[in-house]
Amino acid sequence: MLLSNLLKVVMASVISQKITQAQPAMLVQEKGTVTLECTYSTDEPRYSLLWYKQPSSGPMILLIHQDSYNLQNATEGLYSLNFQKTRDFIELVISASQLEDSAVYFCALREPTVRGMMEGGIHKSQGSY
């Protein structure tokens, strides 16, 4: 196996009141499948879970998101989610990984704002997350 065919995937070791990501860094064979786990906690009935990628150089990139009211797992290109709302758990699956996938990955929880609740709940924003 050539070292040039390996990519490094790092989960940010984040433990907060709402999100836990505790997987160690891993080396993955190019074109392999990578599964990253995230658990979360919220009392809100409606929320969004977002996965970001931070390459070693360049800006952080929003890869994919899952809304709590949508029980169908989100898919975006090579990225797919395994959302288990009853377990407060979500996995990011990267299929056919490439060297460009070497990065630090972050899971984020977005809850409604006070303004959003006063206006009747979460509204789909026109901009970025």
Pattern of helices and strands: EEEEEEEEEEEH
Instruction: Supply the number of structural domains.
Output: 1
Major β-sheet strand ordering: 2-3-5-10-9-8
Strand content: 35-45%
* CATH hierarchy: architecture: Sandwich
What is the helix content?
under 10%
Largest beta-sheet characterization: 6 strands, antiparallel
Mean pLDDT, rounded to whole units?
Answer: 80
Low-confidence stretches: 11-16, 122-127
Number of helices: 1
Question: What class, by secondary structure content?
Answer: mainly beta
CATH superfamily: Immunoglobulins
Separation of the first and last Cα atoms: 39 Å
- What is the count of β-strands? 11
CATH topology: Immunoglobulin-like
CATH class: Mainly Beta
Gyration radius (Cα, Å) is 16 Å
Shape: globular
Protein name: Ig-like domain-containing protein
InterPro entries: Ig-like_dom, Ig-like_dom_sf, Ig-like_fold, Ig_sub, Ig_V-set, TCR_variable_region
Signal peptide: 1-22
Domain Ig-like: 17-107
